[in-house]
């Protein structure tokens, strides 16, 4: 019943790892000074945004320890 197997239509992919090309890829272009500066500026902007969000968000996340906590009137029995 299962004796005959159909050929895989993409059998050439199995041979792709054995194939070696004699054509070398072109060399990578060097980044210009403005491209490098732009990448640094983008990175610094992202880091500054993350640090700023932490600085602005930390007071909202902290619990008031020295301040007197407010209690509702229902919890005081009134």
What secondary-structure arrangement, pairings included, does this model have?
Layout: H1 33-61, H2 73-76
Write up what this structure looks like:
It is a single chain. The chain has 78 residues and is mainly alpha-helical. 42% of the residues lie in helices and 0% in strands. It contains 2 helices and no strands. The protein has helices at 33-61, 73-76. The protein is flat, with a radius of gyration of 32 Å. The mean pLDDT is 77.
Brief summary:
This protein has helices at residues 33-61, 73-76.
Could you list some keywords that capture this structure?
78 residues, mainly alpha, 2 helices
Structural class: mainly alpha
- Helical percent range? 40-55%
Low-pLDDT residue intervals, each spanning 5 or more residues: none
Mean pLDDT value: 77
N-to-C SSE string, H for helix and E for strand: HH
Number of strands: 0
Indicate the radius of gyration in whole angstroms.
32 Å
Which percent range describes the beta-strand content? Answer: under 5%
Alpha carbon gap, first and last residue: 84 Å
